[in-house]
Amino acid sequence: MTKIVLDAGHGGTDSGAVGNGLREKDLTLNIVKKIGDMLKDYEGVEIIYTRTDDRFIELSERAAIANRAGADFFLSVHINAGGGTGFESYIYNGNVSSATIAYQNVIHAEIVKAINVTDRGKKRANYAVLRETKMPAILIENLFIDNANDAAKLKSEQFLQQIAYGHVQGIVKAFGLKKKVNSTPSQPQQKVSDGKLYRVQVGAFSDRKNAERLAEELKKKGYPAIIV
Ligand SMILES: [Zn+2]
User: Fold this and answer.
1) Segment 183-224, tens digit of pLDDT
2) Which position among 24, 61, 141, 217 bears the catalytic label?
3) Could you tell me the residue ranges of all domains in the chain?
4) Ligand 1 centroid, distance to 10 Cα (angstroms)
5) How remote is the CA of residue 81 from the centroid of ligand 1, in Å?
6) Distance 140 CA to ligand 1 centre (A)
7) Closest Cα to residue 4, out of 84, 68, 67, 74?
8) Cα–ligand 1 centroid distance for 38 (angstroms)
9) pLDDT digits over 31-79, tens only?
10) Which of 12, 151, 172, 201 is the most exposed place for a label (fewest CB within 10 A)?
11) d(CA 111, CA 183)
12) What range(s) does the SPOR domain occupy (predicted)?
């Protein structure tokens, strides 16, 4: 079981950065919930949230939540401010494990791929949640709330979904997570009702090799494929 702590920055009396009608604490919670929802599609993942609503939590308590849970990974989500544009990622600027560096590399790269914004680089800083967590920890600053262009993107649910997707793809690659096998009661190829059997064609090829390749792929995914 991979235990992942999702930390939505700020909350409650601490709004975080504000600008362009947006509050950092709302955006971080929104993104973190999207990340958690997407990770539900993967096997062997336990999600632990530092908060799931609008409340204040001390930085040390956020780290303590992860330490008490014996988490494998800590992801802190923030929105930047102070003049600039784009995103950047942070790990602790003291001693870190090689895993921490590897996770930053892969997660940073996946976010770059998912959102087409300025890459401000992989950075290191002495942030409490990075310093006090005993497991690999990363903090992401997603765009600038006080930049009109960045804020316009942050107002789009679809863009927030893309941000979350980038984080998730990074975590999936970092930890080698596998998608859950579709658990719907009936398999897509066959549906039985009233004693009738319906088959669904998933491909038509002039070259038998291509048909065999698809059948092999389907079988690997657990579907009983046949070639006619
Ligand atoms: Zn912040």
Assistant:
1) 555 444 444 455 566 677 777 877 888 888 888 888 777 777
2) 141
3) 2-175, 183-228
4) 6
5) 8
6) 9
7) 74
8) 23
9) 999 999 999 999 999 999 999 999 999 999 999 999 999 999 999 999 9
10) 201
11) 29
12) 192-228
